[in-house]
Fold this protein.
Amino acid sequence: MSDVVGIRYYTAGPIDYCSPRDLELGVGDYVVVSREGSEQLGWVVLAADQVVSATLERPLRVIDRIASEEDVAAWQRQKARAEEDVGRAQELASRTDPRMRVASITYDLSGDQGELTYTAPEKHSADWLRREAQDLLNARLSIRQVGDRDRAKAMGEGVMGLCGRDLCCSNWMTEFPSVSIRMAKEQGLAPNPSKISGLCGRLLCCLSFEVDAYRELRGDLPKVGKRVTTPVGRAKILSIDALRQLVRLRLDDSGEIVEIEADALRAQYGSLVRPEELESTVEDPARAEARDLQAATIAILEPVDRPPAPAPVPASTAKPADARQAEGVSSDDTSSDDEPKKPRRRRRGRRGGRRRRGRGGGGSGNNGSGGAGQQ
C-alpha cells in the first residue's frame, strides 16, 4: 500500500497514519476519522507521496470522509465547550485532592464522548474523578494521568513563555526532549531554577536546541574549573565564552584574571598550557625514573675504595737467583712480588735436645751397647 496519509487531531500532536481509500487528499484538507467508536476531526499533514509506507504497522485506520462545513463548525463548538469544562472539572478535583490539576478535556464531534487528562504528584488511580466528572459534564469520559509538560502543552496557542513567544511544546514540538542541568552549564547559564525552568516547572526544552552548537564551539577546550599549568605559573579556568571565543583564567600566584582567545589556547594546549594532573601522572614519574637511572649509572662508574695494587718490578732491576742466594736470601723467598709470602713454619724438636738424647744413649749402653764397650 503506497496510499497512506498522516493526520493530526490537534496542533503539535502525534501523527496518525490512515488509509485514504479512494479519496484524493492534499496537505491541509480536513477529514473525519472513526476512533474508538467516535468521530474525530483532523487535518492532513503528510500527503500520500510523503509517507514511506514500508515502515508502518498494519492495520491502519480508514478515513471516513472529507469534513464538511457542519463538521468543522461542530469541532469548533466542542473545542470551546472543552475549554470551559476544564475549569469546572478542576473545581471538582480540588474539593477531593487539591494537588490534582486537570490538564485538558477533548470531545468528539457529537460531544457525547471525551477524554480527560490530569497531573498529580504521584501516580495513582482517579476513578472517582471520572465518575463525578461524567455526571457533571454529561458525557462519557476516559481518564488518563499525564506529566507537567503535557499539561503545559495542553494550554494551547497564545500562551507565552519566558522568551515572549508561544510555547514550543504547544506550537510545533511533537515530542519532549531529554533535558539535564548539565546542558545549562555547558551554555554558561547559572543553575538557577527560576531562570532555566518553564511554565511547567521543568527545565526549559530550548536548552537542548543549541547545546550541540555550544559543544562544537567549545571543541577541545578545557572545562570550567580545570587547573592548568602555564609559563607564568598555575591557573584555573573560570569561564568560557563560547560565542565570543574567550577563555578567562585566574593565576594562582598573583590572583590576576586574564583572558585569552580560544584559538590561541587551543594552539598552546598540550605544549605551553597543560593540564595540572599531567605533572603528577606523567611527568613526575618520568622524572623520578630518570633520577633513579642516573643514580644507578653513577654508582656503577665510580671506583671502589680499595688499597692500590703494588707496581710490578721491572725486569732489568730483578736479581738472579744465584746473587740472591749469595746475599743470604733463600730460594723460598724467590717468589714473585705479586704473590704474598707464606710464613716459614718453625720445626719444633723434643725438649732437651741432644742432652736428652745423650742421657738416653748412656742408659741404652747399660742395656746393650754399653756392655759391649766395656768388653
